[in-house]
Design goal:
The structure holds three protein chains of three kinds. Chain A is of the alpha/beta class. Chain A folds into two domains: 33-124 and 251-323, Bordetella uptake gene, domain 1 (D-Maltodextrin-Binding Protein, domain 2, 3-Layer(aba) Sandwich); 126-225, Periplasmic binding protein-like II (D-Maltodextrin-Binding Protein, domain 2, 3-Layer(aba) Sandwich). Chain A has helices at 2-22, 44-60, 75-82, 96-105, 140-147, 165-177, 189-198, 208-217, 264-275, 281-289, 300-318, and strands at 33-37, 64-68, 90-95, 116-131, 156-159, 182-185, 203-207, 221-225, 251-259. In chain C, helix 4 packs antiparallel against helix 5. Chain C contains five helices and two strands, in the order αββαααα. Chain C folds into two domains: 2-58; 67-130, no CATH class. Chain C has helices at residues 2-21, 36-55, 67-83, 89-101, 109-130; strands at 27-28, 31-32. Classes of the chains: A alpha/beta, B mainly alpha, C mainly alpha.
């Protein structure tokens, strides 16, 4: 009896040691983790990342600290993480820009696929087509008829610069509907929106967050969302397919990635933290305040697949003289 | 009324109240110390506000700006060294007053004048901004193009140095601003293979180098004497005669401030000079000016404080900065994703009205800080500058580093610091360079945008009555530089000899 | 002498910028290319600098530069750049201050060292402990 209990204790100790040795990273994270945001503080990506970091700190019981490393359209911070030690203590908050657009458009110091182990998306935001109220179209169908006519050649759409989501969406729209909308670039999405509200530009196709307050006030009219499903934030707005424009689905993602070579256990731990993002009421509330929804990926593999599919899609789409530099 | 309540309820939030207090406290301290101006101080504090809520951050930056205007007169009166350039004129009659043992009275009068001038400026700001916004909503590329052109013409006419030098500085600032990716066709301009340059040069290292580091280098070996006068609360009380003599100069000074504050390129220094010149002209004993006349300090101090408040009018209503400091404010807003312009009041009412309400609170705080606590500021003047300046160099380095946590920005700051020092020593004013740096991208964007919107027809730029009028004014300023020469006419024999730097850095 | 050098350098820099700008796009139709504004700006600087050079002899002003202050402050910043990420914020602060201090002629090192030490601790407290600046206090 006594012997057995001693043995049992031993057995427990031994197995603990085994588990310990087998899962060297079982108690990850044991010190604060740095998440590099490759844009300056206060921007959209930074806001989304900070809320996710607060959630991870709470979920994994260790502080996750945001570090802003802006510059080069996000490529400086991304290159930094690509070259960081693969111990799981330096992570990247990547975006469509850092992993899909920039590498297809210009030289960057990292391989967006081979240099990273994706963990999970935090937010996937779809493109919304909005018009100034003066545009004589109440639905996407009417808009397509209008823009492909001669009157369309006098209309403009705005974007936050060459190769941004809004620019690509606009050119894609021109191509798919046979329209001749003129692209007017601005130095940021905010300025692009100002001229839309003032009516100097008639259309804008960009991620939902920027538009929400102006939709509520009636300053801009939402016509369709370029997604497979309607958005919970705007349940009355039809998808592009519903409104008669097939294959016009695009958006941008914001998510957590580790450098390539981080142990699978660490990736799984981090994913488990991200997976509960949509269940945390504070997160849901804070995200909807900035106009986004938490949409964590089902698994790290699913996120990896999504990123590489997006990479290919953007590669094809950007292979168009309108975007070449 | 609703707006005022909204503003007060925003400004009285603990975080904003604290930011306002910290801002005016820091501003006063920096204003008191000769050698660093409000501009350098704001550039220094800007990175610290990145992590704050935009309203809180901008309330703090604004506090530093108008706080420095209050503090600046302290050194003018006690040491005959202006704390900020727009306080230079206060030396003329303030220092003689101190020599006559009336330093306390002079400090009291400048504080009261600053408070009244600032308050009048805030009223004008509150009433005028919404009106300008209504006009501003009609501003498209053509109107903005015209307005920015007018700014350049106005800026090249003022600022101390000669017009050619000012104009070269505007162009040089503009050329520097073209570094980075072009938003219209994606060309990399002057990036020399540096990824760090793709997004363009950020305002902070440029401003910190040009105004912070170069000012430090200039002032390292300036002699800094100690304050000899003791200032007690009792010695601050003005006589009945002083009170009587300061009322009208303060009101007239505030008027000058409200007029020059919103105009591009003029700002508080020109307002203070105009006020002083006017007081002397209308006085029955002009020969007494420079010997310690109350009017000679009350007017200019009221006017520079009115000007710093009204300088916010074009900044907040049109998104066009008239002075380098306002350019930094715009930069701060942009970093937070807020686009200053006609839409601001509508889309961010808390920010706008909260900021205006914080001006009231800040001016009240400054009144308290500057009268009972004057002893603290005087003792600050007695810290040896040889200890102070190495610490400021470190703070500038850390500030530049913290923009994107990279030494690249510190190196850029150093580059612009050296450039600024060399240009400054050759009599080039740096304010036009910073104005060019900030406004040239706007000019280029609006030019190219206007051509697109007008489908290639240059007539687009003259098609609206507003744009045509502004362009006509600009043309008039170029052809007949009478206006410019009036503004430029500095009382050399009085003021400029004591100006430590040739800068309108307000 | 310095007045000629300043205008001369401005002219050379502007000329180089002008030549570089020729390789940017010129655009077509309503699309103004990215070359136009840089060409106009650098061309303007170059022209004005030439007239400045011609008239430089008549310029007023002294040609003095405070080389000692310039060198000390500049070297202090360079040392900060080299050390902040390798040696840490506190050594970088102390070294930068020490070198910049050489820009003026008073010696009195004792109270300076004491002051610098206190200041460095304050810098650590505000920027690393308080604001979370991502640099080590000591070491890279």
């Amino acid at each position: 009896m006594k012997l057995t209990s001693q043995r049992a204790t031993l057995a427990i100790l031994a197995s603990t040691a085994l588990v310990w040795a087998g899962a060297a990273h079982a108690d990850y994270p044991e010190r604060p983790v740095t998440i590099i945001v490759p844009f300056s503080a206060g921007g959209n990506t930074d806001n989304i990342a900070r809320i996710a970091a607060d959630h991870l700190s709470e979920a994994l019981g260790q502080s996750f600290v945001i570090e802003n490393r802006g510059g080069g359209g996000g490529s400086i911070g991304a290159a930094m993480v690509a070259g960081a030690e693969a111990d799981g203590y330096t992570l990247l908050f990547g975006t469509t820009g850092t992993h899909n657009v920039n590498p297809n458009l210009r030289d960057v110091d990292y391989d967006p696929i081979a240099d990273f182990t994706p963990i999970s998306a935090a937010v996937v935001s779809s493109v919304l087509i909005v018009a100034h109220p003066s545009v004589e179209a109440t639905s996407l169908e009417e808009l397509m008829a209008l823009t492909s006519s001669d009157a369309g050649a006098a209309m403009n759409y705005s974007s936050g610069g060459v190769g941004t989501v809004a620019h690509v969406a606009g050119e894609l729209y021109n191509e798919m509907t046979g329209s001749q909308l003129l692209h007017i670039p601005y130095s940021g999405a905010g300025e692009a929106l100002n001229d839309l509200v003032a009516g100097r530009v008639q259309l804008n196709m960009n991620n939902v967050p920027a538009f929400l307050p102006h939709i509520a006030s009636g300053a801009v009219v939402p016509l369709a969302i370029a997604a497979d499903e309607r958005s919970m934030l705007l349940p009355d707005v039809p998808t592009t397919a519903e409104a008669g424009l097939d294959n016009f689905v695009m958006g941008s993602w914001f998510g957590l990635l580790a450098p390539a070579g981080v142990p699978q256990e660490v990736i799984d731990t981090l994913h488990s933290g991200m997976a509960s993002l949509a269940d945390n009421e504070t997160v849901v509330e804070r995200y909807s305040a900035i106009g986004v929804e938490a949409t964590p990926s089902a698994s790290p593999a699913a996120f990896a697949q999504y990123i590489s599919a997006q990479y290919d899609w953007w590669g094809e789409t950007l292979d168009n003289p309108a975007f070449q530099e | 009324m609703d707006n005022l309540i909204l503003g007060l309820s925003t400004a009285l939030l603990p975080a904003n109240l604290l930011a306002c207090f910290a801002g005016v406290l820091l501003g006063t301290a920096i204003g008191v110390i000769p050698g660093i101006g409000a501009m350098a101080a704001i550039a220094l504090i800007l990175p610290l506000t990145f992590s704050l809520d935009p309203t809180t951050g901008i309330v703090m930056l604004a506090g530093v700006y108008y706080g420095a205007e209050y503090g600046g007169s302290t050194a003018s009166i006690l040491l005959n060294l202006p704390g900020t350039p727009s306080n230079a004129i206060t030396c003329l009659d303030g220092y003689p007053m101190a020599q006559q043992g009336r330093a306390g009275v002079a400090l009291f009068i400048t504080t009261v004048a600053s408070f009244i001038g600032g308050s009048i400026g805030i009223v004008v700001l509150t009433l005028l901004t919404p009106l300008i916004v209504d006009v501003g909503l009609a501003f498209g590329p053509a109107e903005y193009f015209a307005l920015i052109l007018l700014c350049f013409v106005a800026v090249s006419g003022v600022g101390g140095a000669d017009r050619r030098k000012n104009f070269v500085m505007i162009l040089l600032g503009g050329l520097v601003s073209t570094v980075g990716i072009d938003i219209y066709d994606g060309t990399y301009r002057y990036t020399f293979g540096f990824h760090e340059l793709i997004d363009g040069l950020s305002l902070v290292p440029v401003a910190m180098g040009l105004f912070g580091l170069s000012e430090i280098i200039c002032s390292v070996r300036q002699s800094h004497e100690r304050v000899k006068h003791k200032v007690t609360m009792r010695s601050m009380l003005p006589t009945r005669d002083d009170w009587r003599r300061m009322v009208w100069p303060i009101l007239r000074g505030a008027g000058f401030g409200c007029f020059f504050g919103p105009l591009p390129g003029t700002g508080p220094s020109v307002a203070a000079l105009s006020s002083y010149a006017t007081e002397r002209r209308i006085s029955d004993r002009p020969e007494d000016f420079g010997t310690g006349r109350v009017e000679g300090i009350a007017g200019p101090e009221a006017s520079n404080n009115a000007a710093v408040q009204t300088a916010f009018i074009p900044t907040l209503s049109l998104g066009i900065p008239g002075t380098p400091t306002m350019a930094i404010m715009i930069g701060a807003l942009m970093i937070h994703g807020i686009v200053p312009g006609p839409m601001l009041i509508q889309s961010e009412p808390e920010l706008f009205w909260g900021l205006v309400a914080s001006f009231w609170i800040g001016n009240l705080l400054l009144l308290i800080l500057n009268i009972p606590l004057i002893g603290v500021w005087v003792s600050l003047l007695n810290i040896p500058y040889r200890l102070l300046y190495p610490s400021i160099v470190v703070l500038i380095c850390i500030g530049a580093y913290s923009i994107s946590n990279a030494v690249f920005d510190v190196a850029l700051m150093l580059l612009f610091g050296l450039l600024g020092y060399l240009l400054r020593s050759r009599g080039f004013a740096l304010a036009p360079m910073l104005i060019g740096f900030v406004l040239m991208p706007m000019l280029e964007e609006n030019l190219r945008r206007g051509m697109l919107m007008g489908r290639g027809d240059p007539v687009y730029f003259f098609s609206s009555p507003i744009a045509a009028t502004i362009l006509a004014i600009a043309a008039l300023l170029v052809v007949a530089p009478i206006f410019g020469s009036v503004l430029r006419r500095r009382p050399r024999d009085e003021g400029s000899a004591k100006l430590p730097f040739n800068e309108d850095d307000a | 002498m310095a007045r000629y050098v300043t205008w001369g350098i401005l002219c050379l820099v502007a000329g180089a910028a002008f030549i570089q700008a020729l390789s940017f796009g010129f655009g077509s139709g309503p699309r103004i290319g990215s070359a136009i504004i840089p060409l106009a700006l650098s061309g303007g600087i170059a022209l004005l600098s030439v007239t400045g050079l011609v008239r430089a002899g008549r310029e007023q002003g002294t040609d003095t530069l405070d080389l000692r202050a310039l060198a000390a402050v500049g070297a202090g910043v360079v040392v900060f750049i080299l050390t902040v990420e390798r040696a840490g914020l506190i050594p970088a602060t102390l070294l930068c201050m020490g070198i910049a201090y050489a820009g003026q002629s008073e010696a009195r090192y004792l109270d300076f060292v004491a002051y610098a030490a206190v200041f460095a601790v304050g810098v650590w407290a505000i920027f690393i402990a308080g604001l979370g600046l991502p640099v080590r206090a000591f070491g890279g």
